[in-house]
């Protein structure tokens, strides 16, 4: 009766499982990240299904994946089960489906869409529209040909969809259409408000060999190379950069053709006569940040004299960050003069040089062997990065995590935010690297225990466990295992049960493996060695003496 009831319960559960409403393949479902390992995120999509997604699918082009255990994400269910019994899912395809729905609506409404140029292809560029990839023809980048599209790469900006075909997965967009639309509205108003001799601010939009085009707020003017400075300028890029804000004077306006000629030198005196004397190399001065670009910040030392603090000279520790994250416009900063080029009217400045190199400070205060404590900042496939004093990181390589575990296994026990202790192994100031070791905290127990032990040594061990395949023994705290076949040279005596826990046994060391941190031990090898030694000293196979006689003589000699 009980058996029938169990069968009915099992059948009910089976039917319930079969009736569970599972999602259709080819649809977008919600899931939860339950683990991140080996470059993949394991996602539970419900319905007793789990799948794996490469971490790179969670990042926009050129960005680092931002995904953690517990995050809820939408994924595309390609198949409910693969050969391994896992769901086949894709985050990239889910983003693409979501993006296509949004873009089709924008296309129907003739609305602008936001995207970022992230790559070059034949005839144009690729644009990320938030999950869907579009093609931007070279002719649609700007109102005039763009020779260097570098400053446009990665920037969020509006685009107009010219054509899209979801079945073929094709989208064509235009940046030029957006610019022309806004320029047409602004051009007439801007030109009407301009007068010859007027000083205005503009943004360098394009640079050619003969000059630069400056955007005056909807209309472009030509800043000829001969009107950029009082000195001879070989190429406009020597003193200008795309995206830089400059003050110019309107020299001439042709209202019929909408052509505007601009000048810079007309607004300035020559301030460079005394620069070399006032700002010697390695001197420190206070300046004001006047402009911030992707490659650095311009600092005004005095009216008319600006120097560039390159992004590489801004901070000892903050790498690959936008200068705007370190300084802000109008901020007063202390800078050091690194280089002055009077011919090119350039001053190179350094911000980080006004502060001590934190790696030098660390090397002085934390020599090799010093114990430190810090928080786990990052976990990579090759080790841990630990936050240290001075806003710098040290690295613990996989091989320096544990004496007893493989690095790949030992690293699993660490999490971001854990506070750990380690020993400084080496500080390379030039390469800005600090090598740490966690396993060195307690010293090398194996090396200490077997320091005087060599292959062929006879040592005494204590039996700690009896097993079918042999016996476990201990020497100076180090565990080893003697196989059944090594328990005696006599097969009849190769019985683990003849030993007891706590027995002291003399064994011969057959191997010292520092890598696996194990001793190879053998009672059999010790007996064979003793027999060989006895034969050599007390008899031979040619003497006519039996082995028992020889060993007996050796034992009697030892007793004497």
Automatic annotation (TrEMBL):
Protein name per the record: 30S ribosomal protein S1
Alphabetical GO biological process terms: translation
Domain of life, per lineage: Bacteria
Protein family according to the UniProt entry: Belongs to the bacterial ribosomal protein bS1 family.
Keyword annotations from UniProtKB, A to Z: Repeat, Ribonucleoprotein, Ribosomal protein, RNA-binding
SMART domains tied to this protein: S1 (SM00316)
Cross-referenced Gene3D superfamilies: Nucleic acid-binding proteins
Gene Ontology CC terms: cytosolic small ribosomal subunit
Domain called S1 motif: residue spans: 26-92, 110-176, 197-265, 282-352, 369-439, 456-524
NCBIfam families: PRK06299.1-2, PRK06299.1-5, rpsA
GO MF annotations, alphabetized: mRNA binding; structural constituent of ribosome
PANTHER family xrefs: 30S RIBOSOMAL PROTEIN S1 (PTHR10724), SMALL RIBOSOMAL SUBUNIT PROTEIN BS1C (PTHR10724:SF7)
Pfam families: S1
Function: Binds mRNA; thus facilitating recognition of the initiation point. It is needed to translate mRNA with a short Shine-Dalgarno (SD) purine-rich sequence.
SUPFAM superfamilies: Nucleic acid-binding proteins
InterPro entries (UniProt xref): NA-bd_OB-fold, Ribos_protein_bS1-like, Ribosomal_bS1, Ribosomal_protein_S1-like, S1_domain
